[in-house]
Amino acid sequence: MNISKMGRIICISCLILIVLISSVGFSYAVTSSELNQQKKDIDNKIAEINSELAGNKDKMTTALSQINKLNSEISSYESEIKGLNTQINNLNNEISVKQANIEEQEQKYKEQKELLDKRLVALYEDGGSSYLDMLLSSEGLTDFISKYYMISQIAEFDQELLESIDNTKNQIQAEKNSLDQTKNQIQDSKNAVEGKKSSLATSVNQKKSLVSDLSAEEAELQEQLEEYEEHKKEIQSQIAKLATKYPTAVAPSAAGYISPLAGKTKANITTGYGSAGYVGHTGVDFACAAGTPVLAVKGGTVVTSMAKMKNGKYVSYGEYIIIDHGDGTMTLYAHMLAGSRTVLAGQKVSQGQQIGKVGSTGNSSGNHLHFEVFANGSRTNPTQYLP
Ligand SMILES: [Zn+2]
User: Fold this and answer.
1) What is the CA radius of gyration of the chain?
2) CATH number, position 271
């Protein structure tokens, strides 16, 4: 196992741990953005592994095409070797023929030599043989010289024949030597080609082992990918569960605000800010069923949580809450249901935490949430902050 795989496994374990903790503990609105973040992280990991897999596949394709090229070079060397072997075999045949010729000449030489030896022996040693008889039976010196000359002519002829056989043999030997030399040259070429072939075979084996490493790596990556995909499914099912609880989950705005009403966005505003609604409208209105949970759009500290009353009757904002988010912005939630406020001034709230319910207390003609945003103390158009 390499370090990067170890890292991934630790990472997966952490993510699983986070999901386990979040599914037990915190409020759903908080885990929703956490889960989305986790899903994003896993998507990034999956993209990373997929790109590694693609790189791996490229390397494998390259190696396989190199193997094919090497193999085709090897088979061309093999056919070259085959051709050289044919030449060597042909030369071997020719050399065998020459060898047989040489032996034939040697045999001839041997026979001729024996014949000559016999004649010489007969001439010089064996007194009873025909040459001496012929000399002894000569009549007078002239006859003797003439006969002697004839005999020496025969001996000379034998000698010449012998030399001629020897010459032929030497010539064949020279031809054979030249064939041997050619054969050795071809053998050298063949050895060189075999050397090249064997070095290519080594390259092929190296490439094959590379491919096998890449395959193993691919299997490992595939396994990791499956783990991530499985984990992504878990998170998606968690998100789906949250979506059932809060039918249309809306992602936070760029300002980091979520909607004060689950599933609603600024597109659901029923009365706009300022002159977009009516002149002097200090916030935006969301018409909504009584009792709908009102959520803190961002974490912060409650600065006001009160019921505005006059002579025992709700007036102005009615039941309302102001939260300071500590980033220069504050939000105000008004006309909430009588007795629905669940937080007190000074209390810390987290994003998405329920702080009350939609109602129609105070200066209101129907159930709705009146929502305001203060930026550095001044009222501002909430649509710049809402998702
Ligand atoms: Zn309003």
Assistant:
1) 56
2) 2.70.70.10
167-197 tens-digit pLDDT = 888 988 898 899 899 889 989 988 998 998 8
**Helices 28-124 and 3-24, packing angle to 10 deg:** 160
- In which domain, by residue range, is 321 found? 266-384
* Residues 108, 188 share a domain: yes
Check whether residue 52 and residue 139 sit in a common domain. yes
Q: 191 with 337, same domain?
A: no
pLDDT in tens, 246-285: 555 567 888 889 999 988 999 999 999 997 778 889 999 9
Distance 350 CA to ligand 1 centre (A): 24
Residue 95 in any domain: the answer is yes
Handedness of CA 143, 149, 150, 152 (dihedral sign): positive
Q: What's the domain count of the chain? A: 2
CA of 283 to the centre of ligand 1 (A): 6
278 CA to middle of ligand 1, Å? 9
- 227 with 369, same domain: the answer is no
DSSP 46-101: HHHHHHHHHHHHHHHHHHHHHHHHHHHHHHHHHHHHHHHHHHHHHHHHHHHHHHHH
Residues facing residue 354 across a β-bridge:
295
154 and 299 assigned to the same domain? no
- What number of other Cβ atoms are within 10 A of residue 139's Cβ? 8
CA 355 / ligand 1 centre spacing (Å): 18
Dist. CA 57–CA 322, nearest whole Å: 58
Q: Please report, as a single letter, which amino acid is at residue 160.
A: E
Looking at the structure, tell me whether residues 301 and 166 fall in a common domain: no
